[in-house]
Every structure is written in C-alpha cells, then in structure tokens.
Amino acid sequence: MEEHTLKFFVDHTLGKLAKYLRMLGIDTVYFTQTDVYTLIEKASQEKRIILSRNTKLKNLDNRPNFFFISDDQPDKQLSEVLKYFKIQITPGQLFTRCLKCNQKLIAGNHDDVKGKVPPYILGIQKKFSLCPQCRKVYWKGTHLEKMEEIIGKVLKKKD
Fold first, then answer.
1. What spatial distance separates the first Cα and last Cα of the chain, rounded to whole Å?
2. What is the pLDDT along the chain (159 residues), one digit of tens a residue?
C-alpha cells in the first residue's frame, strides 16, 4: 500500500470533504475552530496544506501552502483536490483511516470487538478495523457500499 506524502488541514467550512479524503486514506485533519491564524500556525507546524472555502484566508499574505476550494458540493470539492494535486488512488489505500479522528486503522478480530458491535454483526462479519485512538470499530456493511459509490462517482469525474 502506497502512503501519500500530502497531508491536509481542512477547515470548518469543509467537513464532508475531510471525511471523503479520509475515506481515500489521505491524512486529513479537520480543523473545527474558526480562527484562521491558529489554523495557519498549526498547518505550518505540521507541514500540512490548508484546504478552505474561506475568502478571508484566501486573501491573506504570508500564509502557508493553501488551496482554495471553489465548489460548494462535497463530491465536486473532492474532485477538485484530486485533480489539482494529481492524487492517484489505489484500492489498498481506501478505508485505512478513521473517519472520525484520522488515525490509521488496525486489523481487529472478534475478541477485539466483542461488546463494541451488535451481536448480529459479530455473527455475520469476519473482519473488523479498529481505531487505536478513538476506539471506533469498522466493518463491511451497507454504509461501505454507499461510500464506495460516492468514491466511484468522484474518481470517474476526475479522469
């Protein structure tokens, strides 16, 4: 699995985009505060590219790497980012990060998730992924099919 070298800071105006980038396995911090100066400072410290729809940030001098997102639809925003940064996605990268906190997921088994998922899911699923930070548990279900559908549409638009 190829690791992306690009790391993003997505500001409070682009919550869905942050989730979509994480679905693709791209290291993406979602910055929920509104203070652009704190955003700039943290992005500089962590060597991350800021993605934003904030025109105030767009017009600032001396800001770090920054990309202004022009579209207001999350799937089109994702297409914009993928095209602009020439990001190639491989199947092995998909769903490797926690959608909630951005940590890399680790493999889990039935013993790891017992009591954390419904008994029905424990009975029908064999593979689980766990977030080592927030402890969220992931498995292949209908929600995954919906996410794959979104990703498929975006990747087709990108080409």
1. 22
2. 345 589 999 999 999 999 999 999 999 999 999 888 899 999 999 999 999 998 888 888 777 789 999 999 999 999 999 999 999 888 889 999 999 999 999 999 888 999 999 999 999 998 999 999 999 999 988 778 888 888 887 777 655
Indicate the pairing of strand 106-108 with strand 66-68: unpaired
Q: Which residue has the tokens 């690009």?
A: 6
Q: Which residue has the tokens 């039935």?
A: 110
Q: In terms of C-beta density within 10 A (0-12 exposed, 13-18 middle, 19 or more buried), how is residue 136 classed?
A: middle
- Number of residues that make up the chain: 159
Q: Look-up: residue for tokens 């396995």?
A: 25
- Kindly state the tokens that stand for 105: 């997921």
Would you list the domain boundaries of the chain?
8-158
Closest CA to 95 of 126, 69, 129: 129
Determine contact, residues 49/66, Cβ cutoff 8 Å: yes
Write the burial class of residue 87 (CB in 10 Å: 0-12 exposed, 13-18 middle, 19+ buried): middle
Q: Are 154 and 75 in contact (CB under 8 A)?
A: yes
